[in-house]
Amino acid sequence: MPSSFNIGVIAQRTLGLGLAFAILAAWLSTHIVGIFYVPFENVTLVVTVVALQCWLNVGLFIIAHDCMHGSLAPRWPKVNTLVGKLCLAVYAGFSYAKLLPAHHRHHRAPGTGEDPDFSVAHSDNLMLWYVEFVRRYFGFREFAILTALLTFYLLVFAVPVERMLLFWAVPAIASSMQLFYFGTYLPHRTKPEPFQDEHRTRSNEFGFWGSLFSCYHFGFHHAHHLYPGVPWWGLPRVHESEVSPTASS
Question: Residue 109 is part of which domain span?
């Protein structure tokens, strides 16, 4: 753990679980408001709810990502697993058991043919890499789960299909693009200038707020690969000390 992230285990658990609960609660509240209450006539409100739901979807995945590294609740593996499974299930029916080993393979060989998140054939093509990325992780299992949930909403709550598409499908798809672009493509894409080390990744320079709203600071990707045990909310300080070592002295 870097010296710039000087927080105890109990404090990290408390803050991490508190933020996770807040994001989950905000996601559920926004989901209910969008699906059942937002009038289509209020365009401003519709756009706001869809955008917020998209950002909260990204948050669910980032929480699950921290769980994979054990950084949500250090030394509480069962809690990390439980919260990670919940967040991925709510997000898009993803399997935590499938994504966990894949993500650790990504960390062992980032930006290579052994990295399941990387596209050797399309390392400089945004759309083709994204399509390959989605096909690798979104399969029949996820499709079946989401179809069952959609059917439940339609039959039990009589929610119009257009509401489900606008306030559920659109934010989910948009958030996958957001996660991929800011969390995978920009950090690991091929560029003329070489990577600085074997982690084969770069960090963005969006500043604190730009980094938070783009991908919950996951764009400080080099810092994350150097210190995967640092949770998302601790990455700005680690990134700052990485770029300006004297700042933490």
Answer: 9-198
